[in-house]
């Protein structure tokens, strides 16, 4: 279909090569050819005759060859989708001249060597992120995850003031997190997981009030969690797992009223789990596994009625398993193993479907036969109350006897 200055032929079961004449229509503003079976190369002079082109969408076809460097001559481009094709060789560095570009998607091709930048996840790209990336001031998404990128994060990333999603996960990038990231005030998602980053988490990240997803897991980050992070009251997902973070969990963790996924596992946190964790009323997954946390499991966790997964294993938690956890009717996965818990395992609510795997290697648990533990012979909690009452009565009788004798 051709309408005015727009060609839209997406998902039309087209095959064969794209007619070269299409790329000579100087008034064209948008070309949509995605989701077909088109093959062949893009013309080497693409862009030279498209001064008004704003959108070029050819994703999900069978196009091959190189991405022509002349594509940068289409200087008004805001959207460029060449994903899910068979392009190979270098990504042209001239893409950095497309100053109006807001979306670039080149994922799932056969691109190698140095990256140009932008949306290149899973492309086997090697090399360093060029500092010129900061010139792309109109970018709203930059995803380079799961590539063989090396070097450090360039400070110039902080110049991408319109960026909303920054994904640099699963690479070999090392060094510290630049404080220039704190200038990205429109950032909604920052994903730096599975790299070789070290040093502390910049406290100024807590000023990015638009942030909803923060993934810093599987690095070598050290020091304490900046208290400013607990000011991100609208954050939805926070992953700081598998680092070397220390200190205790502060009561202000309860500020994260909207969080649905919190993973602080495999660090070196100590102290007790604050009771304010019960204020995370929207949370569905809570993982504090493999730390040095101690003390009781807070009763307030039973207030987390949306909770589906609770993982507290491999800590030094002690005391009983709160019976109030039976209220967590949506709970599907529970792991309290490798702690110092004692007393009776609750039997109602979600505990009906649990096995001993959820409670292995604790001090003195008892419960139903399906857990393969000793029988409790009544509630330990109830027995302890009776014992206290008997001691009180006996003490009172003894006192009265002494008084009468005198």
From TrEMBL:
Highest taxon above the source species: Eukaryota
InterPro entries hit by this protein: Leu-rich_rpt (IPR001611), Leu-rich_rpt_typical-subtyp (IPR003591), LRR_dom_sf (IPR032675), LRR_R13L4/SHOC2-like (IPR055414), Plant_receptor-like_S/T_kinase (IPR051809)
Domain (Disease resistance R13L4/SHOC-2-like LRR): residue spans on this chain: 119-232
Gene Ontology cellular-component annotations: membrane
Matches recorded under Pfam families: LRR_1, LRR_14, LRR_8
PANTHER family: OS04G0122200 PROTEIN, PROTEIN KINASE DOMAIN-CONTAINING PROTEIN
UniProt protein name: Disease resistance R13L4/SHOC-2-like LRR domain-containing protein
